[in-house]
């Protein structure tokens, strides 16, 4: 009903605001402060899915959990969800000082409020660690000292356009960082290791996507070796997250406030979207289903055309769109052209025929990978080339390791003529 009401108001070009939920049962009366702007979930054009996870979570409760990239959009939401299931300790790892400070502060406050409500609440230790996942000695020391039972590896560089011009940094952080964390997890007898991945890893056309596919290959290869020890290594892959770092939503908001234009790369470009809470919750739910080596794929609903998202945001902000049909409109949507490495549409599977799981919103796939000993030899060569800053050889190597990688024509020419 909420979505249908919002949709019915869209073409009226009136600013739409909502009244937050108030305590009907307690007789609480709404005030001006309860009126708020539309929430990001309202931009989906579908109901935001509430999670159905009722388990106390065997892999979390009473155990030590390590979250890398804990200060980021997904890592911080995973942290907020995990603390509800009373782990003995949460290790928050990030190289962004402010992001780490903020999630640590929020979790401390959450624990303080919980203790006021319930004196018998279980104490959760919070350990903020300012470190890069590419620092092998630092990560070794973390695993040695804290012995985590579960690892959620969310640390990654993920801005497509930025990484196109910073290839070595992208591969160093996303591939080496994953390799170090996964290997240390394997050596430390971690029970469950979950890599947070992206749909851009599927038949990648950009550096960000190929770096994440290589990270997936690392986890898949280690998963095969880890099964004999009863350890679970799996991948969770999903699309764009509304209002996360790098999302188009905050950019569109700024452009609308400035009076436009709102910039879209191509009229037909589409993306899969979900909210931050949806994504984080499904990552945790997938971890309950993992047996090792799977690539879990989240049901993100239908792909959304970015042009339609921009138009919806403009109109629900109380403005009209200026185009050929309305030359007196308030804000123009301007097409800027696809960025290097950008796809018109994204995919979630490399192969076909995904398997169903007990969760209706989570599918899984078994995708090809290299044996660990073979992959490690290739990665060792790749990391040497990165240290030498031999960019052409680096690009040639990643194209060989990920054969479905299809860079744009200029890069392909360079690689073929190394």
Approximately how much helix is present in the residues?
A: 25-40%
Helical segment count: 13
Q: Could you list the spans in which at least 5 consecutive residues all have pLDDT below 50?
A: 412-418
Oligomer category: single chain
Which strand order spans the largest sheet, edge to edge or round the barrel?
Answer: 5-4-3-6-7-8-13-18-17
**What Rg do the Cα atoms give?**
22 Å
The largest β sheet comes out as: 9 strands, mixed
SS elements, strand count = 18
Task: Name the average pLDDT.
Answer: 85
Report the structural category. Answer: alpha/beta
Proportion of strand residues: 15-25%
Distance between the termini: 58 Å
Plain-language structure description:
The chain starts with a helix and ends with a helix. Helix 2 (about 75-80) crosses helix 9 (about 275-290) and helix 6 packs parallel to helix 7 (about 205-225). Strands 5-4-3-6-7-8-13-18-17 form a nine-stranded mixed sheet, sandwiched between helices. The chain has a three-stranded parallel sheet with strand order 10-16-15. It has 13 helices and 18 strands. The model is unreliable at about 410-418 (pLDDT under 50). The chain has about 425 residues and is of the alpha/beta class. It is globular.
């Amino acid at each position: 009903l909420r979505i249908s009401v919002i949709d019915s108001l869209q073409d009226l070009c009136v600013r739409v605001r909502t009244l937050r939920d108030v305590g009907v049962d307690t007789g609480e009366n709404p005030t001006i402060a309860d009126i708020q702007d539309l929430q990001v979930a309202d931009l989906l054009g579908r109901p935001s899915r509430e999670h159905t996870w009722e388990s106390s979570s065997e892999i979390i409760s009473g155990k030590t959990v390590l979250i890398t990239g804990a200060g980021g959009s997904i890592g911080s939401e995973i942290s907020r969800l995990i603390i509800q299931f009373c782990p003995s300790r949460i290790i928050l790892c990030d190289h962004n000082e402010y992001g780490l400070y903020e999630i640590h502060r929020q979790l401390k406050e959450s624990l303080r409020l919980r203790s006021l409500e319930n004196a018998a609440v279980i104490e959760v230790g919070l350990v903020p660690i300012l470190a890069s996942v590419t620092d092998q000695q630092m990560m070794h020391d973390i695993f040695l000292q804290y012995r985590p039972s579960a690892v959620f590896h969310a640390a990654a560089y993920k801005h497509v356009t930025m990484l196109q011009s910073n290839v070595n940094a992208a591969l160093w952080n996303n591939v080496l960082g994953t390799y170090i964390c996964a290997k240390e997890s394997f050596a430390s007898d971690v029970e469950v290791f979950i890599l947070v991945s992206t749909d851009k890893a599927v038949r990648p056309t950009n550096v960000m996507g190929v770096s994440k596919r290589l990270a997936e290959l690392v986890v898949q290869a280690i998963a095969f070796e880890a099964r004999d020890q009863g350890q679970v290594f799996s991948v969770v892959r999903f699309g764009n997250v509304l209002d996360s770092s790098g999302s188009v939503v905050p950019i569109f908001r700024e452009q609308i406030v400035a009076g436009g234009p709102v910039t879209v790369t191509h009229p037909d470009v589409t993306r899969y979207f979900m909210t931050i809470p949806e994504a984080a919750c499904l990552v945790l739910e997938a971890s309950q289903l993992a047996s090792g080596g799977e690539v879990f794929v989240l049901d993100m609903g239908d792909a959304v055309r970015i042009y339609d998202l921009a138009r919806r945001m403009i109109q629900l902000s109380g403005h009209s769109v200026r185009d050929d049909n309305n030359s007196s409109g308030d804000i123009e949507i301007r097409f800027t052209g696809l960025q290097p490495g950008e796809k018109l549409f994204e995919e979630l599977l490399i192969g076909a025929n995904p398997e169903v799981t007990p969760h209706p919103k989570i599918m899984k796939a078994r995708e090809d990978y290299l044996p660990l000993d073979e992959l490690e030899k290739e990665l060792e060569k790749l990391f040497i080339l990165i240290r030498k800053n031999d960019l052409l050889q680096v690009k040639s190597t990643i194209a060989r390791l990920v054969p479905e990688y299809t860079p744009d024509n200029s890069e392909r020419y360079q690689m073929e003529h190394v």
